[in-house]
Every structure is written in C-alpha cells, then in structure tokens.
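Whether sequence alone determines local backbone shape is best considered at the level of individual chains. We regard such an encoding as a compact summary of how the chain folds. The sequence in question and its structure tokens are set out directly beneath this paragraph.
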Amino acid sequence: MTNTARNLVHPRDQIMRTMDRIYRYRMTTTSGGNLSILDAEGNIWISPARVDKGNLTRNDIVCVRPDGTIEGSHAPSSEFPFHQAIYAARPDLRAIVHAHPVALVAYSICQQTPDTRLFHQAHSVCGRVGFSPYACPGTQELGENIAATFKEGCDSVILENHGVVVGGESLADAFQRFEAFEFAGKTHIKARQLGPVRVLDDEQLEMASNRGVDFASLEPGSATGQEQELRLQLCDFVRRGCRQRLLISTEGSFSARLDDTSFLITPTQKDRELLCPEDIVLVSGDRRESGKLASRAARAHQAIYDKHPAVQSIVFAHPVNATAFSVTDVAFDVRTIPESYVFLRDVQRVPYGVQYRNDGSIAEKISVSMPAAILQNDGVLVTGSTVLDAFDRLEVLESTAEAVINATVIGQISAMPASVIEELRTVFKLS
C-alpha cells in the first residue's frame, strides 16, 4: 500500500479520528488498544494510557520525543515499548494499530491466524501474516517478541492470547490493513459455521490483481442537478454502508446510472467512508472523468447497465455473512421469510472471476427478476431501480444471510414451500 499524497492532517487528529472510527465500528473497547504515528522528525505520537477510547480529544494524544521526553497531559499508552520496538525493527513502517477486535482475538486465543486468501483484496492489503508468542502486556519481552515477528517481514501480527498489531506506511494504511484483517477473520469464522471453506490459489489471486480499467480521459461539462444529487446519494449510502459494516474501506463499488451511456461510480484507491461528491467518477462510453481513477469494477457495472435498461444502480460489496456463503459451496436459500424473497428472488452463484472479464459476461448473471448474486470468493452483487433500492436490497441480503447462518446452530431450516412462493409472486406481481 502506498500513499504518495502529502498528509496535511496533524498526527493528533489522525489518531483521534482513527480511534473514534475503530471504537465506533466496535473493533476495540473503552480501555483496549492503542495507535501511534512515527513522524519525519522521529517523534512518536501515541494514544494515552487510561483514557476513554470513545471520547478521545486531540489534546489527549501524547508525543514522545527521540530523547525520551514526553509532551502531553497524560502518560503514553503502557504498550509504548512495543510500538518503539516495531519502529526500530521496521524502518519502513510509520504507523501502528493495536486493538482487540473480536474475530482476531478469537484466533489469538486458539493460537491461529486467519487465511487472508479468502479474497484477493484481503490477501493484498493485509500483507504477510504472522503470530507472536505471549508475553505480559507492557513488558520489554512483549516488545521483543512482536518486533521479531515484524522483522521477519510480517505486516499483520496476531498476539497470542491478546489481540492484533498491524503496521503501515501511514495511519490510513495501517487502519485499512487492520480492518481488512478483521474482516477476513470474521468471514472465515462465519463460513466455518456453514461448511468447508474455499480459499484462492495463486492463479486466481493473479487474475484479480492483473485486472485493469482502460478508459480514455473525459473533460465533463457543467453538472446537472440530477448528477449532483446522485453524487451526494452515492456518498451518503457508501458512508452508511461502511458504518453498518456492509462495506469496508478498501473494497466494494457503488454506481448510479445518469443516462443511456453514462453512469457515476465510486473511485479506486480511496477510503470508502471518507468519499465526497467530488471524488465520484463520471464514466461515459469509453471515457472517464479526467484526473480520477474509476473503480476497477467499472467495466462490470457498464456491462450490466448496457444489457439491463431498468437497472439504475449497482453495488459490489462484502458484507460478512453474505460473503461467508461466497467462500463455501453452501447454497444461499432466501426462501426463508417473505421480505427476503420479495426483495431478492432466488440469488444465483457466480463462478470466480466472471466479474473481472471485459467480455460483459457478468451481465448475464443478473436481471430484473434476479437482482442479486453471490460472487464466489468475492462478496455479492446487488442491483436496484434507485440508489436507495440497491442499498435496501443489500441490507436485506446481509440480514437474511446472518439469520440463515444463525439458524444453522439452532435447528433445521424451514424454507417456505412452493405454494407460498407462488402466492408472493402473485400478490407482489413479481416477474
């Protein structure tokens, strides 16, 4: 992961905002976890000891100078020694995230690490995964153990009976790595409740990493009111999706049709939750808005719009429970409650890699009567008649998947019989 843009946000604010996000996502507790940044002058900015993680202010952040002097109204985190040790072992790292997200803590308790080869993006973002043996929190021994694992080239490290530490070139990089790592862990745990889990081989990972989007540059004219409104809607729903854990910051795409040949889509290499209307990319025919990088799924979106005039919005996403079905061979049966069937109909399974091709074949896997699909080892695809409709279907899809997974540990799942399905099709005029 590389961030070439100048970062003009002070380390105090970066740490405060990132901790707020981690806490809001329920990926740490009030007293657990710590973040740090190593700046260009050798100062380590770190979250404080014994301060409520849900209410950090910028003035709570502590600065430890290279000579050991401390500036701030609190003591630095008790885990400061291992932050310092990691920076010494890995000069390429400039930020560290340590926290106790429940899925990765579960792995730490079992002395295991999650397999990030579940998805190409998780495997790419998380880097090399490692495991560090136990030592008492706050001790020099713990710092030595963790630093030794990072020195081996690991970027995401499970701490035995403790939690996780990840490093990055910036705090944004470290957060995205941390989030993707926890997402892989959660998905793997959910998938194992369903059945055997399938991971990607080297050839499949290569297929995903080599895909590209070949659009010429476009200098658009003045935006219409419709375009302005759709840009805002996309940003609002992407942000909501991140906060409801339907999307993660490094993966997924959302688009809306403008006219017969144009659509708006989320960009690549941008944090999904932080998008603003100016970040959204206009695609028209074989051209994309100048100075911006459209999502690498843009060709797939375009193929669906070209084939299905009634589709007005498309989402590729990775909600944990629905994605758990994508990494197993277990069929996802939505004939469980009326709302699920009415909104989703029968959800198809798409073989791995179809969405990466530039031959338009992904459009064959979706239609007005089949508005959603499970993408093997790559989350879900959902379409709608509006941005709201697509997002609503995504929520229903994930809620249904979670209910079905939960039901597997309760008893035999009772799907609605054909007579009920036919009644629903008649009452709701389903095609």
